What we know:
Number of strands: 9
Number of domains: 1
CATH class: Alpha Beta
Order of helices and strands: EEEHEEHEEEHHE
Distance between the termini: 18 Å
Radius of gyration: 16 Å
CATH architecture: 2-Layer Sandwich
Structural class: alpha+beta
CATH topology: Alpha-Beta Plaits
Strand content: 25-35%
Shape: globular
Amino acid sequence: MFTLFLTSSAExxxxxxxxxxxxxxxxxxxxxxxxxAPPAWIAQLYFDSLAALEAASAQMRGxxxxxxxxxxxxxxxxxxxQVPPRYCTYLVAYEGPAQxxxxxxxxxxxxxxxxxxxxxxxxxxxxYTPLQWRCPPHLDRLRHLQRNxxxxxxxxxxxxxxxxxxxxxxxxDFARFPAYRGRVTHYAMxxxxx
Length: 194
C-alpha cells in the first residue's frame, strides 16, 4: 500500500484514490511536547500501486507540498469495526536525517509499534517510510525520514493516551533510537474521510 501526503495553506481538489483522509488542526494537550501551530490542511490519499499514486499526483492542481510513502499497518487491540466519518488523529513526522537511515528505520519499525499499539483506546496505527517517486513539477516534493499516525475516537481519548504510562514507555524508547538529528513534529488533527 502506498500513500500520498499533501500539505497546503488552502484546501485543494483531490484526485481519485482508494481512500482519502483530510486533517485539520485540533487542540489536545500533550504533557511532553508543544510543537507549535500545525499545518492548516493536510490530505492523505491511499493507492494500491506506486504507478497509480504517480498518475494521481500528475492530475493535481494548486500549490501543495507532496510526499509519497509506503504504508506499514499494525494491528491494535480494538480497531474500529467501521471507521467513523470523523475522529482524532495524532500525526507525527521525523524530518531527519539519521546517521544511518536504514538502521534507524529498522529499529523504529521493530521496537516502537508494539509500544504504540498499547496506547489506551487506540483505534488505528500506521507508519510511513519514504519512497523514490516521480513528483510532478507543479508540486513541491517533501521527504521525511518517517511519518506515523495513531487514531482515536475523540480528543479526550487522545489526551488520555498522551498522558498514559505507555506514553512514558514510548518516550524512554525514543531515547534509545539510533543517532538522529532534526525536527520531530506532533500534531493533533481532526480527521475526516472524503
